[in-house]
TrEMBL record:
One of its GO terms (molecular function) is ATP hydrolysis activity. InterPro entries: AAA+_ATPase, ABC_transporter-like_ATP-bd, ABC_Transporter_VariousFunc, P-loop_NTPase. It comes from Cohnella zeiphila. CDD domains: ABC_DR_subfamily_A (cd03230). Keywords: ATP-binding, Nucleotide-binding, Transport. Residues 5-228 form the ABC transporter domain. This is ABC transporter ATP-binding protein.
Amino acid sequence: MKSAIHAANLTKKYGKRMALAGLDVDIPEHAVTAILGPNGAGKSTFMRMLTGLVSPDQGTLSILGQYPSWQLNASISYLPDRARWFESHRVEHAVEWGASLLPGFDKDRAWELVRALGLDAEMDVRGMSKGQEARLMLAICLARDVPLLVLDEPFSGIDMISREKIVAALIDSFSERRQTVLICTHEIAETESLFDYAVFMKDGRNAMSGHVEELRASRGSVQDIYRQLYS
Ligand SMILES: Nc1ncnc2c1ncn2[C@@H]1O[C@H](COP(=O)(O)OP(=O)(O)OP(=O)(O)O)[C@@H](O)[C@H]1O
């Protein structure tokens, strides 16, 4: 397995709180990896570290063979866990913003995604529901043809049936493009079919990781493993 991301003994403390407590993990390239775990396990901290928004206190991190940096961020499409990007925009402005600012942004693809996700150009972001806004942010991130996608809770706020539809569309899109994709989510039931690889985090560490097919063969579904590890 060739790694797109290699992390060794990563630690990060906020005051007395250990967000990462010696995280060792290898994320395979050209695969879709789930980063799973309960609230506070350190998932978002790890994802922020990939884009240089948070620096490790200790440990090493290599992404596509490089250290995290602003230059490297041109190769990463990052969906943060709690951002609102386009409050004073309409959908069409958000797409223009992406096209003018984001490296690798494919405008035709953005429009395809916007329509497929049930949005239209004239919609005002301020008036959107939480789920509609989440779809817009997801469309903007997925429209980028870059080697690495880092999506922190991309489905939160999106209803179950729509989530299932989006997941089905994503499976086709990811296999076509050979991108490395990391997704942090709590919606395991509807998203399990997306994942090639899974990392289960606990207390800032890697509690278990592996290829989903192998994990399933030895331990049951991703949901079963989740229950075994955390309940
Ligand atoms: N900026 C911050 N300041 C202080 N503490 C923080 C900060 N960011 C994270 N933490 C703490 O670090 C720990 C890990 O947080 P993190 O957001 O990485 O967890 P998570 O696994 O993404 O959780 P969730 O599933 O709730 O999003 C938590 O205890 C959190 O309170």
